[in-house]
């Protein structure tokens, strides 16, 4: 049994849901998986994990700064263990090139170049946004030519099958190359 940590940053909650889903997939494979909301934790990587999957979401073109801080602070450890990054954005659904650009910028800013990276579609949670955020997101989405402008409902773009495959591939690689006891 491997122990895997899933530290993440989230602003409206979709990255937290994806982190929990990854944790469920890993636990179904017989491993221990702990999620860690970085906003409420101190920033040192806890000891005793065999692998780490970092998650972050995009707002105004950037991942959460506190996730970048966490990665910079623990970069050395992340580089010496199986570690992956997933990035959550609307671009991952609508404009994958843009989503990759956000990842490259995160890598440049942190100096961490994980061997495994995934981008996942996030969510437009109109019903949970305050008035200004709702109007702003509707405006942005509409200016991009999308029809997803009904602010009376939410739109979820996360493809859960892709998330499950990402988690299964990560753990399969870990099972092939377990950390020495
Ligand atoms: C205020 C705001 C700004 C956003 N800016 C971007 C952006 O610049 N690019 C993008 O692809 N997605 C953008 N998004 C979409 C978010 O990445 C998406 O809603 C994601 O699911 C948020 O994840 P979280 O719920 O874990 O915070 C934005 C969303 C909000 C609410």
UniProtKB/TrEMBL annotation:
Gene3D superfamilies according to UniProt: 3.40.50.360
Q: Which domain of life is it from?
A: Bacteria
Read off the PROSITE patterns from this record.
FLAVODOXIN_LIKE
Q: Which InterPro entries match?
A: Flavodoxin/NO_synth, Flavodoxin_dom, Flavoprotein-like_sf, Protoporphyrinogen_IX_DH
| Domain Flavodoxin-like: start-end pairs | 4-160
Coiled-coil intervals = none
Record PANTHER family: PROTOPORPHYRINOGEN IX DEHYDROGENASE [MENAQUINONE], PROTOPORPHYRINOGEN IX DEHYDROGENASE [QUINONE]
Protein name (Swiss-Prot/TrEMBL):
Flavodoxin domain-containing protein
Species this chain originates from: Arthrobacter sedimenti
